[in-house]
Amino acid sequence: MEEKKWTCVVFGCFLRVIQLLSVNAEFKAVSRDQLGFKFMNFFHKPGTVLTDSSITVHSSVTDVSSCQLMCLDHTSCLSINVGKKPNQTTLDCELNNSTSLLKPLSLKKREGFDFYGLAEPCFSSSCLNGGTCIPNMNEGTYHCNCSTQIPYLPYLDNHCSVDHSVIKTSGVFHNVFHLEITKKVYSMNYYEAERACAVKGAQMSSLKQLEDGFRAGFSLCSYGWLIDGKARFPILHPVPGCGSSPGIKEETTPEDKWHSRYNVYCYKETDNCNDKNWHQNDQACYKFFLDTKVRKANAAQACVLEGSILGVFNSVAKLTFLQDYLQRKNVTDEHILVGLSQNAVGAWKWANGEAVQSSLWNVIQPTGPIGIVNAVMKSFDNVPDSDEWKLPFVCQKQLP
pTM of the predicted model, to two decimals? Predict the structure, then answer.
């Protein structure tokens, strides 16, 4: 019997676990038999200990597995604290008559010590996309209760996973993006759209959030649910069938949350740039150097050191994003250095090789050699390459 216990501990396999019951305001020590122990894993919380629950302390323990065995041999042991005190070569093993699942507020930080508690089946479940974990305490297993399926987005397995390849997202403007199921245009009712946003770790956008995205350049002729139960879309330019003036367009037919079907606009607080100094707009990340004024060559070199290029703003939508960002930062400089310049044969190109949209020039015949953005006019100017035109700048890197 002792050999079987040792094997389980060494391989991190199975230890008896409590059946979680409603917790009284004051925890009373009970035995494992009273709590209905079965077999489960220890879970590990490094750098912490469970306080006010100690049964006994064993000094001179050689490893964590030995401490786990001591817990197994004590009928009231539900968890352990293991660690070294300063100038100590062996471990202290503290047996507890409770666990963090019963007394979460008693889990405290302690340098050099780790907490190991007995996990109930759902502690490390892999139920996805809002699936609810249903534990089987007698067997030490669980199953996932998945939400109602979204049409054209079926669950692939019993962990509620879905095929993300049929989910298309468009644009990220002020953390707002458009989501649709590619198998059918306008396929979701309100409640299905809400769950579709959750699949992407997001929530449905509010009208205010969509308006912020619109001011940052979001433009898409596609109705999508918002959290208020209305279907809308943002449009910057006249598009046949989508309106003759810019703004947020609203579906005029009264929406039925159960039977009306649209796409959805979602909001996710974090973006894909993974750095607070970089800001996502559509499929690119931008870093602004607004307190630094340099010449074009120095700005380009600074961007190279950031693994990027000088910013490319070759559309009204991107210029709107730039203007909105500068306004929110209360920047008074109206000119910004970007990745626009005239090459040796006189052609204007962006840093990524794109040709320049000529309608966005603020001058009839740009002479160069440096192109800059006039953020107030949302247009391009050209200036000489001289110390008189040291300006703030913005770098850009494309998302994968």
Answer: 0.56
